[in-house]
Amino acid sequence: MHLHSLMTISPIDGRYFNFTKCLRNIFSEFSFLKYRLYIEIHWLKKIISMHKKLNIRKIKAIDITLLDSIFKEFNEKDALYIKEIEIKIKHDVKALEYFLKDKCTQLKQLSNITEFIHFACTSEDINNLAYALMIKDARDKIILPLWSKIIKFLKDFSFKYKNVSLLSMTHGQAATPSTMGKEMANFYYRLQRQCLKLKAIEILGKMNGTTGNYNAHLAAYPKINWHIVSNEFVTSLGISWNPYTTQIEPHDYIAEFFSCISLFNTILIDFNRDVWGYISLNYFKQKKIDNEIGSSIMPHKINPINFENSEGNLGLSNALMHHMINKLPISRWQRDLSDSTVLRNIGVAMSYSVIAYKSMLLGSKKLIINTSELENNLNKNWSILSEAIQTVMRRYSIKNAYEKLKEMTRGKIIAQNDIHQFIETLNIPKKEKIRLKLITPCNYIGASSKIVDEII
């Protein structure tokens, strides 16, 4: 069964194997079978626990553990056997049911309850709960830990460089300064908001039969309140219960889930592009790794490839997620099959995100701030102080303050001496002149540093 990474079609399982192998225990075909087996076994255990109400033979607690052992011992041989059955009958969930029946038939203690395997279930009762657990595990074990690393990097970076002045660029032109720490704090705050939202999204599941009305359940046991049983079962899996569905759980929560991730990704694309630009401006240098090559012909290059890789993979992930957001909540009448193949690509969409997150983190470790270049660029742009001067002039009711500074500075190279000479001509208190002359492009940062302290 081993397939060399060189022979795979997708780079997810080939070139980026080491980045995405953490998702294999969740989204591989083997893992999908195992999640569905988990649901089938737990539904059977739920039925067994209702033996008095259902008038079936009681199974000893020690014998019920045999069911758990079927799940715990599930292996590649078992998975291949299920796939062999599926090839014959052309139905994946029914193949799993037959596999479980076969396993239970071989165990004398469980042989009398085989007809209660998959009892009153439609395939989607099993599938939707399996996907819910897969998404929950991917969120809690993979996505959120990676998000936490990214957010921690931004938090630490913001605090470390909260006092390092930065010439802002609005419309690509020199503008009022900030600090590098404050600009990173902006990303920290935006990403942290999405992290909190992702944690709060309810992951939903249903267990209510062919069209969501317990028809088969009530046909067999009309006196049982299957609505309550469904609630108990779904919530016992650690997910929230959706009481109103057709044959399928409508996937609204998956759309919410991917909407949150795609927005996180979009914010991270914004971050990648900003950092790429700062590297281009020489505001950041990158650590030199001796055995790495930046260009096949230009020996001098250290390219920002990690941020470029991250940006590209975030775009791929978002493209898939946006399709899922638009597709999955829509199903013709009580059910069509168009969601099935889309759902099987949830792991693909998440894989591209995981590749991107890890690439961004690798690139972040290479960043070295270049304070001298930041200072040089600030000191070339004394005209940015025109904002401060004209605002103080307004405070003292000097007419046409904006227009005067516009005439003096717009489109011109202005030096420190030009600014100070202009300040001397102003009809304002001497102490204000002194204060204005103390303002430089490097220290004209407003409350940037304090804002970082507050947000952190």
TrEMBL record:
Pfam families given in the database record: ASL_C, Lyase_1
Catalytically driven reaction(s): (2S)-2-[5-amino-1-(5-phospho-beta-D-ribosyl)imidazole-4-carboxamido]succinate = 5-amino-1-(5-phospho-beta-D-ribosyl)imidazole-4-carboxamide + fumarate; N(6)-(1,2-dicarboxyethyl)-AMP = fumarate + AMP
Entry GO CC: cytosol
Entry-linked SUPFAM superfamilies: L-aspartase-like
EC number: 4.3.2.2
InterPro entries: Fumarase/histidase_N, Fumarate_lyase_CS, Fumarate_lyase_fam, Fumarate_lyase_N, L-Aspartase-like, Pur_lyase, PurB_bact, PurB_C
Keywords: Lyase, Purine biosynthesis
Domain (Fumarate lyase N-terminal): residue spans on this chain: 20-312
Annotated ranges, domain Adenylosuccinate lyase PurB C-terminal: 331-445
Broad enzyme group: lyase
Family: Belongs to the lyase 1 family. Adenylosuccinate lyase subfamily.
Family matches, as PANTHER family: ADENYLOSUCCINATE LYASE (PTHR43411)
This protein's name: Adenylosuccinate lyase
